[in-house]
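Hi support team,

I'm opening this ticket because the web form for multi-chain structure prediction keeps timing out on my end. I have pasted the exact lines I submitted so you can reproduce it. The total is 371 residues across two entries, so I didn't expect it to be a heavy job. Is there a limit I'm missing, or should I split the entries? Thanks in advance, R.K.
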Amino acid sequence: MAALPKRIIKETERLVSDPVPGITAIPSEENLRYFEVTIEGPSSSPYAEGEFKLELYLPDDYPMCAPKVRFLTRIYHPNIDKLGRICLDVLKDNWSPALQIRTVLLSIQALLGAPNPDDPLANDVAEDWKKDEKRAIEVAREWTAKYAVKS
Amino acid sequence: MSTYEDDHNLRENTPPRSGRNNRSGGRSGQPQRNHRTLSAAIDSFIESNNPHSSAQVPSQTVHDTFSQALSLLATEEGSELALQLLDTINSEANGGAGGEKHQGVTDEFLDSLERVKLKDVPNKETADCPICTNLFVDNEYPLLVRLPCNVQHVSGKKSKGHIFDMECIAPWLKMNSTCPLCRFDVVAADKTRREKLEEELRKLKEEDEEEEEEGWDVYG
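Hello R.K., no limit was hit. The queue was backed up. Here is the completed structure from your submission:
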């Protein structure tokens, strides 16, 4: 395997020495491009009190390409499907090499606080969300209590 | 007993050269000629994508033959998929005109970027490249370039574009013509600049011609 780019080493060191509040990212021992991530749900959202596990992978052409990120914990959210795939512009067309692992994870945390049912990935959830937002938020809260329990 | 050909609605004479041909043409028993067009296109497409191939097909030709083959499929089957694919490759070939995708820049454009000396970088002791995050001062042989971001806001003064290592920004700009920090579209800016220059040149030319005519009035 090719040597790990200096930027990835620097990012990893900083994630450990100066972690983002409410977010952890730990590189796997076998593959330093693979991170086990946890994100705490924002306090003013139905995901509050929940701790969500994600996996993050830095492709070979990172940072020219966005990291690949996926939720492992089940979550009821209009922009996250049941496979954990995330619909977020900076992970797709709006990626920029000036963004970093920490900024991407912060964007995902912000997405939890600001669901966008008009740009859905999980269509059924988005429809529920638009039809009856109160009920949808209630379901999101139930799922958080059921699946996203802090370990 | 029915043969394989019967089952798959193939003509007896159609040589089942490969599974690919059978799949693409077999469903409605189209004339043999069409199978060949499609299979030739697919073959040339595969060949051009194979770096070890001796006969390189220019990508433009591949694009043309591939879209030809797809339109053939589309007209005969009315295939939704073929039409969709056709749309996709056309919009990709046109750089997704009207779409959100930004195409990359040319090597000439990269060469034309403003070079910046380390001593002219603001806060040069702490300034780093936003892409590799290394300090510019740590680089023994820095080759720094400034993108023309926000050029339109600058009045007379030097532009305050974002600075990157050439090595880092080049591969990005070749894929995407926006500044990684402010998403300023450098190609669009370059185009406007050129258009303005051409406009000015044309005006100057016209003025010249007018003067010439006046000159004739006076001296002629």
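A quick check on our side: The first strand of chain A starts at residue 23 and ends at 27. Let us know if the file doesn't open in your viewer.
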